[in-house]
């Protein structure tokens, strides 16, 4: 078992408890690797041979490296996403009945709801704080780190049919308990959540203007299997891909090349936000880079026409108990390589030229890969790849590690597949 890879992934997952914390962790890695931070609202000074990153509205990050002799060509691109299915705290969230103080939440993304029951949950996100300048409130990032909430199941004695399957109502059945009315030591029981949040941010409750807070399970990621070949954790979708993209962009850029890696927010809810793959923000950043180096619009268009991109997101590993849910000939086995995903309906970004490039790199550097296609009668989910190329037209291919129980609060993968994915991203970005 590759202990180093598992340890790195464990640290990332434990730190990436919200899209904002995902970006903070990536920023720390890029800072340590010598990347220079740029700001969207400030003018840029760029040079060939430079390494840079841009924080996009706190939950998306774009990083890029410029070769010493880059002439506006040889563009390589990779993307993953920072968000994950979870529960998001609503404003004015406190609910109280029968001695329970509960938290009103809404479901973010396509979560498998029953996997959130009976699990200790914590909360993380960002808090917007009042300042003297109304137009510039402070943004503070918060992670409670400890178990605080739980959504209890109903006992089998009260629902004898529970093992036949239960449909959970998102408004009624997914409400976490956060305290008991009579035992809380917070005096203002009508605003227990706001008071707790204020205490953890170190400001008065009256100074909190708003928040983006998400619940997450606090269980620790772990290696499992008799030979330690499996890895179990929440948020494998898509921290596996974030790790591969970051390692890739930190590898050596070709002398005449330009490499870019983007970690987008909002993939799990359709990407149609200012910081999502459906936005023009990354295309604007690319155009801005070309202008800064004195290249005109046509040079940028030519570069994109010849560019190669990878959309990096998890894929469905074949299920041990329900193998019939996979395609009979294009199925992913755990620890047999990362998946190359294609779809006739273009739910995945695919291009045979890029498939040829990726397979050529795999052959040369002894990297294992597999092909994945969904069963013809079971349409798969979509990814950010097809959305990205609608705004940044280039050849692009969807790849990712096989996982079990995708969108569960805890997923499982083969750790060797992570090694293969990281290797292909490193070779993709560094091959000259």
Please explain how this structure is put together.
The structure is a single chain. The protein is α/β, with parallel strands linked by helices. The chain folds into two domains: 3-84 and 234-430, Aminopeptidase (3-Layer(aba) Sandwich); 86-217, Aminopeptidase i, Domain 2, CATH 2.30.250.10. The chain is 25% helix and 27% strand. It has helices spanning 3-15, 19-32, 192-201, 236-249, 281-292, 297-305, 352-365, 384-391, 415-430, and strands spanning 36-38, 51-56, 60-66, 75-81, 86-97, 100-108, 121-129, 138-143, 177-180, 208-217, 222-224, 230-233, 258-264, 308-312, 315-316, 338-341, 369-372, 395-400, 402-404, 411-414. It has a nine-stranded mixed beta sheet, with helices on both faces. It has a six-stranded antiparallel beta sheet with strand order 8-7-10-5-6-9, sandwiched between helices. A hairpin with a 6-residue loop joins strand 19 (402-404) and strand 20. It is globular. The mean pLDDT is 95. One of its GO terms (biological process) is proteolysis. GO terms for molecular function: aminopeptidase activity; metallopeptidase activity; zinc ion binding.
């Amino acid at each position: 078992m590759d202990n180093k890879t598992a340890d790195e992934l464990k640290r990332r997952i434990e730190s990436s408890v919200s899209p904002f914390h995902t970006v903070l962790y990536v920023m720390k890695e890029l800072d340590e690797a010598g990347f220079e931070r740029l700001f969207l609202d400030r003018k840029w000074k760029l040079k060939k041979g430079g390494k840079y990153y841009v924080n996009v509205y706190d939950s998306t990050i774009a990083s890029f490296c410029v070769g010493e002799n880059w002439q506006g060509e040889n563009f390589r691109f990779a993307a993953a996403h920072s968000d994950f299915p979870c529960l998001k705290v609503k404003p004015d969230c406190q609910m109280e009945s029968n001695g329970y103080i509960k938290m009103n939440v809404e479901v973010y993304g396509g979560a498998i709801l029953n996997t959130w029951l009976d699990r200790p949950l914590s909360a993380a996100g960002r808090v917007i704080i009042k300042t003297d300048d109304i137009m510039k409130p402070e943004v503070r990032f918060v992670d409670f780190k400890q178990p605080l909430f739980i959504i209890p199941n109903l006992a089998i004695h009260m629902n004898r049919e529970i093992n036949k399957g239960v449909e959970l109502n998102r408004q009624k059945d997914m409400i976490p308990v956060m305290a008991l009315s009579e035992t809380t030591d917070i005096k203002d029981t009508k605003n227990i959540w706001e008071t707790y949040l204020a205490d953890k941010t170190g400001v008065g409750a009256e100074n909190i203007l708003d928040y983006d807070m998400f619940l997450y399970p606090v269980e620790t990621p772990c290696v499992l299997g008799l030979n330690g070949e499996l890895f179990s954790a929440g948020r494998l979708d898509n921290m596996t891909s974030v790790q591969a993209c970051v390692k890739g962009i930190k590898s050596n850029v070709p002398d005449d090349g330009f490499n870019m890696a983007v970690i987008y927010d909002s993939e799990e809810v359709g990407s149609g936000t200012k910081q999502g793959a459906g936005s023009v923000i990354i295309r604007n950043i690319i155009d801005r880079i070309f202008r800064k180096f004195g290249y005109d619009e046509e040079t940028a268009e030519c570069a994109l026409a010849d560019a190669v991109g990878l959309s990096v997101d998890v894929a469905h590993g074949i299920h041990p108990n329900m193998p019939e849910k996979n395609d009979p000939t294009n199925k992913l086995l755990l620890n047999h390589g990362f998946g190359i995903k294609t779809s006739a309906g273009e739910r995945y970004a695919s291009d045979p030229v890029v498939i040829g490039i990726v397979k050529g790199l795999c052959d040369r550097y002894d990297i294992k890969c597999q092909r994945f296609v969904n069963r013809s009668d079971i349409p798969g989910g979509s990814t950010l790849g097809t959305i990205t190329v609608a705004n940044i037209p280039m050849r692009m291919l969807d790849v990712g590690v096989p996982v079990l129980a995708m969108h569960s609060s805890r997923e499982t993968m083969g750790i060797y597949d992570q090694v293969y994915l990281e290797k292909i991203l490193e070779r993709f970005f560094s091959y000259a």
